[in-house]
């Protein structure tokens, strides 16, 4: 169609308008209207193609947007699940820390008691040793008194 238009324009440009009669001028106007009509049809076809491409791009963008929304929703659910699991684990950790604290307190109590018992035992051993030494000295003293008489 463009080739036709191009050929026709060349032929029209070769025509000397001064020579044309009134009838020829009418034919020229008709030709120009036909040419304008063809141009409008060409642009109309182009706009249809552009509209189709635009609709196709919009559909692709809408599909991509839906996929992103679906992924965002999935990730939000996963995040909420992770948050609740974390909260549960923190509660378990707190409970275990309290339990450990109780065990540690009990252990420290037993160790303190054992230390007191060991200390008492050492004191009693020292007292026993002192008593044994005192008895031994007393026997030595008795021996030495016997030997003096």
Can you describe what's shown?
By secondary structure, this protein is mainly alpha-helical. Helices cover about 95% and strands about 0% of the residues. The chain has one domain. It has two helices and no strands. The longest helix is centred in the middle third of the chain and has 127 residues, at about 20-149. The termini are far apart. The relative contact order is 0.03.
Strand content: under 5%
The figure for the number of domains is 1
Q: Helix-strand pattern, N to C?
A: HH
Uncertain ranges: none
Radius of gyration: 57 Å
Number of strands: 0
Which percent bin holds the helix content? over 70%
**Number of discrete helical segments:** 2
Which secondary-structure class do the elements indicate?
Answer: mainly alpha
List the helices and strands and how they pair.
Layout lengths: L1 H13 L7 H127 L1
Please give a handful of descriptors for the protein shown.
single chain; 149 residues; mainly alpha; 94% helix; rod-shaped
Gist?
This protein has helices at 2-14, 22-148.
């Amino acid at each position: 169609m463009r080739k036709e238009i191009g050929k026709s324009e060349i032929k029209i440009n070769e025509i000397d308008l001064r020579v044309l009669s009134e009838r020829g001028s009418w034919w020229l106007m008709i030709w120009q209207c036909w040419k304008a009509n063809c141009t409008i049809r060409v642009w109309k076809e182009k706009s249809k193609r552009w509209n189709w491409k635009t609709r196709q791009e919009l559909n692709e963008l809408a599909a991509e947007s839906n996929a992103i929304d679906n992924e965002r929703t999935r990730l939000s659910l996963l995040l909420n699940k992770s948050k609740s699991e974390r909260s549960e684990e923190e509660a378990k950790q707190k409970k275990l820390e309290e339990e450990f604290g109780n065990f540690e307190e009990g252990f420290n109590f037993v160790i303190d008691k054992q230390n007191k018992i060991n200390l008492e035992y050492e004191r009693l051993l020292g007292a026993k040793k002192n008593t044994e030494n005192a008895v031994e000295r007393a026997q030595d003293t008795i021996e030495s008194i016997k030997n003096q008489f």
